Amino acid sequence: MHSNLLFLSTLFYLILSSFSTSNLIPYQSDISILDFGRIIEENPIAILNPKSPQEISLLIQSIFSKNTKNIQVAPRGAAHSTYGQSQVLGGIIINMTLLPTFIKVEKEKEFVDVGGGDLWVDVLHETLKHGLTPRSWTDYLYLTIGGTLSVGGISGQSFKHGPQISNVLELDVITGKGEFVTCSEEKDSDLFYGVLGGFGQFGIITRARIILQSAPKLVKWVVISYKSFEQFRKDQELLINGGEVDYLEGFINLQRRNSSEDKLNDLVSYLIEFAVYYDDEDVAYKKLNHILPRLNYKESRPEITDTSYFDFLNRVRKSELELSKEGLWNVPHPWLNVFLPRSQIKRFKDLLLETIADTYTSGPIIIYPIFRNKWNPKMSAVLPQVDTEEDIIYVVSVLQSAPPTCTRGTPCLDTMLLQNQKIINIATTEPIVHNLLLPAECVMNEDREEMGAKQYMPYLQNEMQWKAHFGWKWERFQDLKRRFDPLHILAPGQRIFQKK
């Protein structure tokens, strides 16, 4: 161990000798590099606090030109990853949030140029000054542009406008060779499509050009409760097919099962949450009066809240502040996110609830439909393969928060992680991870009937699993890696490629 650290330190100072900047500092143990998951911790040897994209380029050029073995870099934005994806063992973290803020609205052309380290909430603030807004969001706005565009960026607007990666016109990217490339659908399109949803494997996003639209002032925020899953599902699909709502997500409310006598159906209810954006109150009421009578809710009356457009989009911030006060925000988050074929959604819901009902603690369970045709298949992001006539797929996000005492290495967190792995093993086409020493009941038969799910922001551990995840896109993904990051310098925390 000591000799390995000495070797890495020597390499670091070799880089430092040809990369003159006071912004590259040795890592100290009092600097936290944990991500939002707080599950994996891998320490770097240094941190770059860049004052410009040029410093990032020079650093990578220095590493690439020396063919420096074992030195890799990980761009770190808001660090909202959950399984160490923004970390790098013995390498260099690039603190993207310290880049100068760059948000330039082109009102006439309805787009905004933004820096890769800028936060979406800041982009919202700035575009609203011009009466404009991006079309597609994530539920939580304190994330960086480069971070969400590297994975997809989804929320309740995705059924209408696609994910955030479907709303990008142009990118500035620093490749794994340290080269600056401006790319779009027309120019260097292979890099453009590859970077969008590409987990940071081909380049670091330093600028993105995002599509804008006119911003509404107000929102009718509607919540409806259901006991029937089938009716809950049908009404969600009716709403997205109708096209009148501007946002839609669904939620599973689950009470923890404390006794074997508790029937699961008695512990579960479902919520549809949708929004209608508006400037004119009469127009909004006409929409609701057309929408609500077509829904088949019976258990309760709809709850309708009027709020500003900004406050609606920033709704998770209130929960964050409340949980932070109670010491419940900076806890482990063993999250699970998947895309599912429409035909498998009830089967997956049953598997999920049966698996976690006895141990569930807190955190939203989100489930909603989106359209495949809003995603460009040229991009790196992966969706389930379904019947060509079926355009609807489902997003399921199990965003559990562990109790504060349930930290890394404790049985309670291990149980939650094993439950996630059980669900993944059954639902996806990815190979079973036998080396996790799963309990016998978690290891399914090799000829199991798979659901065809695909993980969103997956945590996989070897090339075989990633090959299965990417499917027909894998060869292209490998080719892009060979061309734009041949030494495998970038984003090693994703565990897709080994260092060359």
From TrEMBL:
Pfam families per UniProt: Cytokin-bind, FAD_binding_4
Top-level taxon: Eukaryota
InterPro entries per UniProt: Cytok_DH_C_sf, Cytokinin_DH_FAD/cytokin-bd, FAD-bd_PCMH, FAD-bd_PCMH-like_sf, FAD-bd_PCMH_sub1, FAD-bd_PCMH_sub2, FAD-linked_Oxase-like_C, FAD-linked_Oxidoreductases_BP
Leader sequence residues: 1-20
Organism: Dendrobium catenatum
Any one Gene Ontology molecular-function term assigned to this protein's record: cytokinin dehydrogenase activity
Swiss-Prot/TrEMBL GO biological process terms: cytokinin metabolic process
Cofactor list: FAD
FAD-binding PCMH-type domain segment(s): 40-215
Gene3D superfamilies referenced in this protein's UniProt entry, alphabetically: 3.30.465.10, FAD-linked oxidases, C-terminal domain (3.40.462.10), Uridine Diphospho-n-acetylenolpyruvylglucosamine Reductase, domain 2 (3.30.43.10)
Keywords from the UniProt entry: FAD, Flavoprotein, Oxidoreductase, Signal
Name used for this protein in its record: cytokinin dehydrogenase
Family: Belongs to the oxygen-dependent FAD-linked oxidoreductase family.
EC class: oxidoreductase
Enzyme Commission code: 1.5.99.12
